[in-house]
């Protein structure tokens, strides 16, 4: 399971626009590199990333082999109510990695 780092403010006022950050440690092998024996390194990429806030999807992206290692995303959401901010990554093999933080709205 790859390591992830997410950043969600612990609290926000209702109506605040807050920055959300997420990164996953992944090699994102594009299939064009060769190993020391001259054999192509197989493609190994994260293919999808999504984020939900209190059960509603707020961000989704489909990733391609041209993306660099350790894909990082930064985006904004409008704080409306206290709830979980859930993160979801899936690689080409179907492996799912999840992370979550709770945003408290005052």
Automatic annotation (TrEMBL):
<dbReference type="InterPro" id="IPR014756">
    <property type="entry name" value="Ig_E-set"/>
</dbReference>
<dbReference type="Pfam" id="PF08770">
    <property type="entry name" value="SoxZ"/>
</dbReference>
<dbReference type="InterPro" id="IPR030995">
    <property type="entry name" value="SoxZ"/>
</dbReference>
<dbReference type="InterPro" id="IPR014880">
    <property type="entry name" value="SoxZ_dom"/>
</dbReference>
<protein>
    <submittedName>
        <fullName>Thiosulfate oxidation carrier complex protein SoxZ</fullName>
    </submittedName>
</protein>
<feature type="domain" description="Sulphur oxidation protein SoxZ">
    <location>
        <begin position="6"/>
        <end position="100"/>
    </location>
</feature>
<dbReference type="InterPro" id="IPR013783">
    <property type="entry name" value="Ig-like_fold"/>
</dbReference>
